[in-house]
Amino acid sequence: MTSHTIRPTALKYRELAFGAGAVATVAVVAGVVEFRDYLPQIVIGTALLLVVGVVCVALFFRNTKVVLEPGQVSHTNMVGYTKRIAAGSVSSVVLVHNFIVLVSLRTRTRRSDAQVFLLDPSGATLLRVRSALWGAESIALVRAAVPAVPETEHDTMEPGTMRGAYPRSIGFFEANPIVVGTLAAIAVVAVVAAVIVAIMVSRS
């Protein structure tokens, strides 16, 4: 096997940039409509969040990569830390052709992509590659990096069933998106309510 380097796709970058721009637009519009007196603070806060977001996205796409070499797989994260995985430490490979995730609690919208997991002897994930982020060809390249390791294929799985079959492959929060989404919504409402109350008190 020759060496291959795979990086996140530009499509995901456009999605992240669009999302950051949408959040910033909503924040500024809300500030203009509801809290004109605090518009400078809202604009400055939004600008800072955008700068931090742009820097994080730039670092992610500049540094993040997976290098596939004979006998070794290396994963470098956004801050430049590289984790090296010897082929001998991979106990099993799990290939899911359609890994279905919930992307909207309100509309129950779901999205699927192919994913491959490299697991150690305890069942913990050493490396996980998603075709939606790394590109469709990445799945075959990662699989080819550890040809001697037994593979288990699944046509369709959801986070909950994945955690049930391989308990250490993904975390509790990913396996329970409805619980996480509900808690996040409650937290957002609580923060917004606290901000509104604080502003109203300051005006009185």
Q: What summary fits the major beta sheet? A: 4 strands, antiparallel
| Overall number of strands | 8
Give the CA-based shape.
elongated
Helix/sheet category:
alpha+beta
- Our count of helices gives 7
Round the mean pLDDT to the nearest integer and report it.
83
| Biggest sheet strand line-up | 1-2-3-4
Helix content: 40-55%
Question: From N to C, what is the helix and strand string?
Answer: EHHEEEEEEHHEHHH
Radius of gyration: 21 Å
Q: Poorly predicted ranges (pLDDT <50, ≥5 residues)? A: none
> How many domain modules?
1
Share of residues in strands: 25-35%
Report how far the terminal alpha carbons are from each other. 71 Å
Question: Can you offer a commentary on this structure?
Answer:
- With 204 residues, this protein is of the alpha+beta class.
- It has one domain.
- The protein is 50% helix and 27% strand.
- The protein has seven helices and eight strands, in the order βααββββββααβααα.
- The strands form two sheets. It has a four-stranded antiparallel sheet. The protein has a four-stranded mixed sheet with strand order 7-6-5-8, sandwiched between helices.
- Strand 6 and strand 7 (125-130) form a beta hairpin.
- Helix 1 packs antiparallel against helix 2 (39-63).
- The longest helix is centred in the C-terminal third of the chain and has 27 residues, at 177-203.
- The protein is elongated.
- 12% of the residues are buried.
